[in-house]
Amino acid sequence: MEVDDEERQKQSAGEGEVEEERENERKKSVVIKIPSYQEVFETSQAKPPPSLFRPSSSFAEAFSFIKNSEFYSTPPPPPTSSSQSVPSQVNSASRPSEASCSSSSASASVPSSAPSLSVHNRNAILVSHRQKGNPLLKHIRNVRWMFADVVCDYLLGQNSCALYLSLRYHLLHPDYLYYRIRELNKNFKLRVVLCHVDIEDVVKPLLEVTRTALLHDCTLLCGWSLEECGRYLETIKVYENKPADIIQGQMDTDYMSRLTHALTTVRHINKTDVVTLGSAFGSLSRIMDASMEELARCPGIGKTFV
Protein backbone atom coordinates (compact mmCIF):
# COMPACT_ATOMS: atom_id res chain seq x y z
CA MET A 1 0.00 0.00 0.00
CA GLU A 2 2.85 2.38 0.82
CA VAL A 3 4.38 1.69 -2.61
CA ASP A 4 1.14 2.58 -4.32
CA ASP A 5 0.89 5.84 -2.39
CA GLU A 6 4.44 6.78 -3.36
CA GLU A 7 3.73 6.08 -7.03
CA ARG A 8 0.58 8.16 -6.89
CA GLN A 9 2.49 11.04 -5.32
CA LYS A 10 5.16 10.79 -8.03
CA GLN A 11 2.51 10.76 -10.75
CA SER A 12 0.72 13.78 -9.27
CA ALA A 13 4.05 15.60 -8.91
CA GLY A 14 4.89 14.82 -12.53
CA GLU A 15 1.49 16.02 -13.71
CA GLY A 16 1.96 19.26 -11.72
CA GLU A 17 5.32 19.87 -13.35
CA VAL A 18 3.82 19.28 -16.81
CA GLU A 19 1.03 21.77 -16.11
CA GLU A 20 3.53 24.35 -14.88
CA GLU A 21 5.59 23.93 -18.06
CA ARG A 22 2.46 24.32 -20.19
CA GLU A 23 1.45 27.44 -18.26
CA ASN A 24 4.93 28.92 -18.73
CA GLU A 25 4.82 28.21 -22.47
CA ARG A 26 1.35 29.79 -22.69
CA LYS A 27 2.60 32.95 -20.96
CA LYS A 28 5.57 33.14 -23.28
CA SER A 29 3.32 32.84 -26.37
CA VAL A 30 1.16 35.82 -25.32
CA VAL A 31 2.82 39.00 -26.71
CA ILE A 32 1.36 42.41 -25.95
CA LYS A 33 2.11 44.82 -28.79
CA ILE A 34 2.48 48.45 -27.69
CA PRO A 35 1.74 50.86 -30.58
CA SER A 36 4.24 53.58 -31.33
CA TYR A 37 3.55 57.32 -30.96
CA GLN A 38 3.22 57.77 -34.72
CA GLU A 39 0.59 55.01 -34.98
CA VAL A 40 -1.43 56.49 -32.10
CA PHE A 41 -1.22 59.98 -33.63
CA GLU A 42 -2.34 58.77 -37.08
CA THR A 43 -5.32 56.84 -35.72
CA SER A 44 -6.45 59.78 -33.58
CA GLN A 45 -6.59 62.17 -36.54
CA ALA A 46 -10.07 62.54 -38.03
CA LYS A 47 -10.06 61.56 -41.67
CA PRO A 48 -11.89 63.99 -44.00
CA PRO A 49 -14.95 62.58 -45.74
CA PRO A 50 -14.50 61.64 -49.38
CA SER A 51 -15.35 64.39 -51.83
CA LEU A 52 -18.61 63.99 -53.71
CA PHE A 53 -17.67 66.60 -56.30
CA ARG A 54 -18.30 65.44 -59.84
CA PRO A 55 -18.08 68.46 -62.12
CA SER A 56 -20.35 68.64 -65.12
CA SER A 57 -19.05 69.49 -68.54
CA SER A 58 -21.71 72.14 -69.23
CA PHE A 59 -24.50 74.09 -67.59
CA ALA A 60 -27.14 72.21 -69.58
CA GLU A 61 -25.85 68.84 -68.39
CA ALA A 62 -25.81 69.94 -64.75
CA PHE A 63 -29.49 70.90 -64.84
CA SER A 64 -30.66 68.21 -67.25
CA PHE A 65 -32.63 66.49 -64.47
CA ILE A 66 -35.15 69.36 -64.54
CA LYS A 67 -36.50 68.15 -67.87
CA ASN A 68 -37.56 64.87 -66.23
CA SER A 69 -39.52 66.60 -63.47
CA GLU A 70 -43.22 67.30 -63.52
CA PHE A 71 -42.68 71.06 -63.48
CA TYR A 72 -40.96 71.18 -66.87
CA SER A 73 -42.87 72.00 -70.01
CA THR A 74 -41.49 72.13 -73.54
CA PRO A 75 -41.03 75.74 -74.69
CA PRO A 76 -42.99 76.82 -77.77
CA PRO A 77 -41.11 77.06 -81.07
CA PRO A 78 -39.81 80.54 -81.97
CA PRO A 79 -41.82 82.52 -84.52
CA THR A 80 -40.49 82.63 -88.05
CA SER A 81 -40.53 86.42 -88.23
CA SER A 82 -38.05 86.76 -85.38
CA SER A 83 -35.21 85.56 -87.57
CA GLN A 84 -35.22 88.88 -89.40
CA SER A 85 -34.83 91.00 -86.27
CA VAL A 86 -32.26 89.05 -84.28
CA PRO A 87 -29.61 91.36 -82.70
CA SER A 88 -26.13 91.20 -84.00
CA GLN A 89 -24.70 90.03 -80.66
CA VAL A 90 -27.01 87.00 -80.59
CA ASN A 91 -26.07 86.11 -84.16
CA SER A 92 -22.43 86.25 -83.28
CA ALA A 93 -23.06 84.13 -80.18
CA SER A 94 -25.07 81.47 -82.01
CA ARG A 95 -22.38 81.08 -84.72
CA PRO A 96 -19.06 80.88 -82.89
CA SER A 97 -17.38 79.23 -85.86
CA GLU A 98 -18.06 82.21 -88.17
CA ALA A 99 -16.78 84.66 -85.56
CA SER A 100 -13.63 82.65 -85.06
CA CYS A 101 -13.00 82.49 -88.82
CA SER A 102 -13.42 86.25 -89.26
CA SER A 103 -10.94 87.00 -86.46
CA SER A 104 -8.31 84.66 -87.94
CA SER A 105 -6.93 82.22 -85.41
CA ALA A 106 -6.95 84.55 -82.37
CA SER A 107 -10.39 83.69 -81.03
CA ALA A 108 -10.03 80.00 -81.81
CA SER A 109 -7.24 79.64 -79.26
CA VAL A 110 -7.65 82.30 -76.59
CA PRO A 111 -5.27 81.62 -73.68
CA SER A 112 -6.45 81.46 -70.09
CA SER A 113 -5.04 84.86 -69.15
CA ALA A 114 -5.90 86.39 -72.55
CA PRO A 115 -2.80 88.60 -72.83
CA SER A 116 -3.46 89.64 -76.44
CA LEU A 117 -7.06 89.80 -77.63
CA SER A 118 -7.95 90.73 -81.16
CA VAL A 119 -9.86 93.90 -81.92
CA HIS A 120 -12.94 91.85 -82.77
CA ASN A 121 -12.98 90.10 -79.38
CA ARG A 122 -11.74 92.97 -77.24
CA ASN A 123 -15.14 94.67 -77.12
CA ALA A 124 -17.09 91.47 -76.45
CA ILE A 125 -17.56 89.21 -73.45
CA LEU A 126 -15.99 85.83 -74.14
CA VAL A 127 -18.22 83.09 -72.75
CA SER A 128 -16.99 79.61 -71.95
CA HIS A 129 -18.64 76.62 -73.61
CA ARG A 130 -19.58 75.45 -70.10
CA GLN A 131 -22.27 78.14 -70.07
CA LYS A 132 -24.18 76.80 -73.07
CA GLY A 133 -27.84 76.60 -72.08
CA ASN A 134 -27.52 79.08 -69.22
CA PRO A 135 -30.57 81.41 -69.35
CA LEU A 136 -28.36 84.23 -68.08
CA LEU A 137 -27.03 84.73 -71.62
CA LYS A 138 -30.47 85.96 -72.75
CA HIS A 139 -30.17 88.95 -70.42
CA ILE A 140 -26.81 90.21 -71.75
CA ARG A 141 -28.19 92.68 -74.28
CA ASN A 142 -26.12 95.88 -74.05
CA VAL A 143 -22.75 94.22 -74.68
CA ARG A 144 -21.68 91.81 -77.41
CA TRP A 145 -20.73 88.30 -76.34
CA MET A 146 -19.50 85.17 -78.05
CA PHE A 147 -18.36 81.67 -77.14
CA ALA A 148 -14.63 80.95 -76.85
CA ASP A 149 -12.21 78.48 -75.26
CA VAL A 150 -11.52 80.21 -71.94
CA VAL A 151 -10.86 78.80 -68.47
CA CYS A 152 -13.26 81.13 -66.67
CA ASP A 153 -17.00 81.35 -67.34
CA TYR A 154 -16.96 84.97 -68.56
CA LEU A 155 -13.83 86.75 -69.76
CA LEU A 156 -14.56 90.46 -69.17
CA GLY A 157 -11.17 91.87 -70.16
CA GLN A 158 -7.48 91.16 -70.29
CA ASN A 159 -7.18 91.04 -66.49
CA SER A 160 -10.75 90.48 -65.32
CA CYS A 161 -12.98 87.42 -65.33
CA ALA A 162 -16.12 86.07 -63.67
CA LEU A 163 -17.30 82.69 -62.43
CA TYR A 164 -21.03 82.01 -62.36
CA LEU A 165 -22.45 80.05 -59.43
CA SER A 166 -26.02 79.18 -58.55
CA LEU A 167 -26.72 78.59 -54.86
CA ARG A 168 -28.98 75.72 -55.81
CA TYR A 169 -26.09 74.12 -57.69
CA HIS A 170 -23.76 74.88 -54.77
CA LEU A 171 -25.93 72.78 -52.45
CA LEU A 172 -25.54 69.83 -54.84
CA HIS A 173 -21.79 70.32 -55.41
CA PRO A 174 -20.17 72.18 -52.47
CA ASP A 175 -16.63 71.77 -53.88
CA TYR A 176 -17.43 73.17 -57.33
CA LEU A 177 -16.46 76.78 -56.58
CA TYR A 178 -13.13 75.77 -55.00
CA TYR A 179 -12.05 73.72 -58.01
CA ARG A 180 -13.08 76.45 -60.45
CA ILE A 181 -11.12 79.12 -58.57
CA ARG A 182 -8.09 76.82 -58.44
CA GLU A 183 -8.20 76.51 -62.23
CA LEU A 184 -7.81 80.29 -62.61
CA ASN A 185 -4.45 80.31 -60.78
CA LYS A 186 -3.12 83.90 -60.62
CA ASN A 187 -3.78 84.90 -64.22
CA PHE A 188 -6.38 87.60 -63.50
CA LYS A 189 -6.18 90.76 -61.42
CA LEU A 190 -9.97 90.94 -60.91
CA ARG A 191 -11.73 87.64 -60.23
CA VAL A 192 -15.47 87.97 -59.68
CA VAL A 193 -17.72 85.26 -58.26
CA LEU A 194 -21.18 86.03 -59.63
CA CYS A 195 -23.57 84.25 -57.26
CA HIS A 196 -27.20 83.81 -58.29
CA VAL A 197 -29.34 83.60 -55.13
CA ASP A 198 -32.13 81.27 -56.29
CA ILE A 199 -33.12 79.64 -52.98
CA GLU A 200 -34.98 80.92 -49.92
CA ASP A 201 -32.73 79.75 -47.07
CA VAL A 202 -29.50 81.54 -48.03
CA VAL A 203 -27.73 81.97 -44.68
CA LYS A 204 -25.57 78.85 -44.57
CA PRO A 205 -24.77 78.37 -48.31
CA LEU A 206 -24.07 82.08 -48.79
CA LEU A 207 -21.74 82.01 -45.80
CA GLU A 208 -19.79 79.15 -47.38
CA VAL A 209 -19.55 80.95 -50.73
CA THR A 210 -18.44 84.18 -49.02
CA ARG A 211 -15.73 82.37 -47.05
CA THR A 212 -14.40 80.63 -50.17
CA ALA A 213 -14.35 83.88 -52.15
CA LEU A 214 -12.53 85.82 -49.42
CA LEU A 215 -9.92 83.14 -48.82
CA HIS A 216 -9.02 83.06 -52.53
CA ASP A 217 -8.98 86.85 -53.17
CA CYS A 218 -12.18 86.94 -55.20
CA THR A 219 -14.87 89.63 -55.36
CA LEU A 220 -18.34 88.31 -54.55
CA LEU A 221 -21.35 89.80 -56.35
CA CYS A 222 -24.81 88.48 -55.45
CA GLY A 223 -27.79 88.79 -57.77
CA TRP A 224 -31.32 87.79 -56.91
CA SER A 225 -32.40 87.46 -60.55
CA LEU A 226 -30.84 86.60 -63.87
CA GLU A 227 -31.47 90.15 -65.10
CA GLU A 228 -29.42 91.53 -62.22
CA CYS A 229 -26.58 89.07 -62.88
CA GLY A 230 -26.53 90.05 -66.55
CA ARG A 231 -26.46 93.71 -65.58
CA TYR A 232 -23.38 93.11 -63.43
CA LEU A 233 -21.51 91.53 -66.33
CA GLU A 234 -22.48 94.35 -68.68
CA THR A 235 -21.38 97.03 -66.21
CA ILE A 236 -17.99 95.44 -65.55
CA LYS A 237 -17.35 95.17 -69.28
CA VAL A 238 -18.45 98.74 -70.04
CA TYR A 239 -16.32 100.19 -67.24
CA GLU A 240 -13.31 98.05 -68.13
CA ASN A 241 -11.11 100.96 -69.24
CA LYS A 242 -12.75 103.69 -67.13
CA PRO A 243 -10.83 105.39 -64.30
CA ALA A 244 -11.79 104.75 -60.70
CA ASP A 245 -12.81 108.36 -59.98
CA ILE A 246 -15.93 107.95 -62.14
CA ILE A 247 -17.68 105.90 -59.48
CA GLN A 248 -16.41 108.06 -56.60
CA GLY A 249 -18.77 110.50 -54.95
CA GLN A 250 -18.54 114.22 -55.63
CA MET A 251 -17.42 116.32 -52.66
CA ASP A 252 -17.81 120.09 -52.46
CA THR A 253 -14.64 122.10 -51.97
CA ASP A 254 -15.97 124.89 -49.75
CA TYR A 255 -15.42 124.65 -46.00
CA MET A 256 -19.08 124.89 -44.94
CA SER A 257 -20.12 121.94 -47.12
CA ARG A 258 -17.29 119.82 -45.76
CA LEU A 259 -18.19 120.84 -42.21
CA THR A 260 -21.82 119.89 -42.85
CA HIS A 261 -20.77 116.51 -44.26
CA ALA A 262 -18.62 115.83 -41.16
CA LEU A 263 -21.06 116.95 -38.46
CA THR A 264 -24.25 115.45 -39.91
CA THR A 265 -22.75 112.00 -39.48
CA VAL A 266 -23.33 112.51 -35.73
CA ARG A 267 -26.74 111.45 -34.55
CA HIS A 268 -29.33 114.23 -33.78
CA ILE A 269 -27.32 116.90 -35.63
CA ASN A 270 -28.98 118.34 -38.74
CA LYS A 271 -27.94 121.03 -41.20
CA THR A 272 -29.56 123.79 -39.12
CA ASP A 273 -27.47 122.79 -36.11
CA VAL A 274 -24.35 122.83 -38.28
CA VAL A 275 -25.07 126.42 -39.34
CA THR A 276 -25.61 127.40 -35.69
CA LEU A 277 -22.39 125.76 -34.51
CA GLY A 278 -20.40 127.11 -37.44
CA SER A 279 -21.54 130.70 -36.87
CA ALA A 280 -20.95 130.43 -33.11
CA PHE A 281 -17.49 128.82 -33.12
CA GLY A 282 -16.21 129.31 -36.64
CA SER A 283 -14.31 126.04 -37.14
CA LEU A 284 -14.48 122.35 -36.33
CA SER A 285 -11.51 122.52 -33.97
CA ARG A 286 -13.22 125.15 -31.82
CA ILE A 287 -16.40 123.09 -31.75
CA MET A 288 -14.42 120.09 -30.53
CA ASP A 289 -12.71 122.18 -27.83
CA ALA A 290 -15.95 123.80 -26.61
CA SER A 291 -17.31 122.88 -23.20
CA MET A 292 -20.77 121.53 -22.44
CA GLU A 293 -21.94 124.95 -21.17
CA GLU A 294 -20.79 126.71 -24.34
CA LEU A 295 -22.56 124.18 -26.54
CA ALA A 296 -25.76 124.44 -24.46
CA ARG A 297 -25.94 128.22 -25.10
CA CYS A 298 -26.45 127.58 -28.84
CA PRO A 299 -30.17 127.47 -29.80
CA GLY A 300 -31.26 123.94 -30.64
CA ILE A 301 -28.29 122.35 -28.90
CA GLY A 302 -28.85 120.75 -25.50
CA LYS A 303 -29.43 117.51 -23.69
CA THR A 304 -31.19 114.83 -25.67
CA PHE A 305 -33.21 112.19 -23.88
CA VAL A 306 -33.85 108.98 -25.79
TrEMBL record:
<feature type="region of interest" description="Disordered">
    <location>
        <begin position="1"/>
        <end position="53"/>
    </location>
</feature>
<dbReference type="InterPro" id="IPR010994">
    <property type="entry name" value="RuvA_2-like"/>
</dbReference>
<feature type="compositionally biased region" description="Low complexity">
    <location>
        <begin position="81"/>
        <end position="116"/>
    </location>
</feature>
<dbReference type="GO" id="GO:0005634">
    <property type="term" value="C:nucleus"/>
</dbReference>
<feature type="domain" description="ERCC1-like central">
    <location>
        <begin position="125"/>
        <end position="237"/>
    </location>
</feature>
<dbReference type="InterPro" id="IPR047260">
    <property type="entry name" value="ERCC1-like_central_dom"/>
</dbReference>
<dbReference type="GO" id="GO:0006302">
    <property type="term" value="P:double-strand break repair"/>
</dbReference>
<keyword id="KW-0227">DNA damage</keyword>
<dbReference type="GO" id="GO:0003684">
    <property type="term" value="F:damaged DNA binding"/>
</dbReference>
<comment type="similarity">
    <text>Belongs to the ERCC1/RAD10/SWI10 family.</text>
</comment>
<feature type="region of interest" description="Disordered">
    <location>
        <begin position="70"/>
        <end position="116"/>
    </location>
</feature>
<keyword id="KW-0539">Nucleus</keyword>
<dbReference type="InterPro" id="IPR011335">
    <property type="entry name" value="Restrct_endonuc-II-like"/>
</dbReference>
<keyword id="KW-0238">DNA-binding</keyword>
<protein>
    <recommendedName>
        <fullName>DNA excision repair protein ERCC-1</fullName>
    </recommendedName>
</protein>
<dbReference type="Pfam" id="PF03834">
    <property type="entry name" value="Rad10"/>
</dbReference>
<dbReference type="GO" id="GO:0006310">
    <property type="term" value="P:DNA recombination"/>
</dbReference>
<dbReference type="GO" id="GO:0006289">
    <property type="term" value="P:nucleotide-excision repair"/>
</dbReference>
<keyword id="KW-0234">DNA repair</keyword>
<dbReference type="InterPro" id="IPR004579">
    <property type="entry name" value="ERCC1/RAD10/SWI10"/>
</dbReference>
